[in-house]
Amino acid sequence: MRPDTPAENVDHTAEAARLERTAGLHPEDAEALLLRAAAHLELSGDRPAAAALYDRLLASGTELENPYLVRALKASNLWEYDHEAEARAIIDGIRAAAPRDPAPWVIVAESLEAHDELEQAHETFTEAVRLLLTDVPEPPTATLPLLFGRHRVRRMLGAVHDEWDALADTVHTLPITLDELHDPKRVWSLGSENPAELEAEISRLRAEVGAYRTALSRPFPVAVLHWPADELAELLEAYPSLAGEYPSHEEHLATIETALRELASSGTPNLGIVPGTVPSYEAFAASEGTTPDDADLLPQYATTLAARGRALPWPPQRSAACWCGSGRTYGECHGT
Q1: How many CB atoms lie within 10 A of CB 15?
Q2: Which of 64, 258, 296, 302 would bridge with 225, disulfide CB 3.0–4.6 Å?
Q3: DSSP of 156-218, one letter per residue?
Q4: What are the start-end ranges of the E strands in the chain?
């Protein structure tokens, strides 16, 4: 499915089947592909089939990149088709495990919120914020939905602003404030006969929809291929004709950063970096009916990896680890 395909024009069942087939061809990417397939099944209304995919991942015997994310998605899906007790048990298990990834926290807290469990949702958001953001100089982008969700629930509970709400206000970038977006009373203005009030509320709703789309979308990135040092050495040893593309590893890294900055300055959105490996590159070349020493294959390989969900978004936050794997922060390394 192309990222610009309107949702109403998508055959979610067919798309899920396509992703399942792709996962069979690329088992190393099965987790990302099957999660996307499950999402399409949920959108199609076939929630039992989506639950079966989550169970398939959890029972696969392979080490998952984010098992708590899979469990959280399973719980959220189960609750939507009357398996509340099992969903609650999974949510309790995730909270007890206290994962360091914000995504499972967001999903289970929003699931509780969606079912009017506001006190439990507030407790879950707060646990996650304290765990992941205490003594953190700059909130990572992935944690922002936690701050915003906690702010929203507290507004519905009528709680007084605290330091975490103040932080949420600070990192919020939309022209309409969080207090306005999360005002529980604003829904009443939709019944107003005053055109000015209606217009103001429509503007607020558009801003909130835009925020949700940004948070939920997983756009297809413009991806640049990154070879880690050991992989590049192996690649050039096996295919010396590619040395013209990669004079040195240091120059390769510098070229990646320069290319991405030029794309960003030209207004290109959704930039990413995909790490390559020699075995997967050789397999890709074989699937294309050509040889790995064909330099024209490199951008196609990068695009294919990105389509399989392997791209890392660029730029990282300055306080996050640099994309090159140096062990330094991006601000200290290629972000200077």
Answers
A1: 19
A2: 302
A3: HHTPPP-HHHHHHHHH--SSS-HHHHT-GGGGGGGG-S-HHHHHHHHHHHHHHHHHHHHHH--
A4: 222-226, 271-275, 312-313
List the 312-313 sheet strands across, edge first.
Answer: 222-226, 271-275, 312-313
Query: H or E element: which one contains 35?
Result: helix 30-44
- The sign of the dihedral angle between the CA atoms of 27, 309, 128, 179 is negative
- Find the angle CA(81)-CA(8)-CA(48) to the nearest 5 degrees: 20
Q: pTM of the predicted model, to two decimals?
A: 0.65
State both tokens at 78.
């189960």
From the list 172, 147, 139, 149, the residue with the least C-alpha distance to 317 is 139
Angle subtended at Cα 314 by Cα 308 and Cα 319, rounded to the nearest 5 degrees: 130
pLDDT, one tens digit per residue, over 83-130 is 999 999 999 999 999 999 999 999 999 999 999 899 999 999 999 999
For β-strands 271-275 and 222-226, DSSP reports them as: parallel
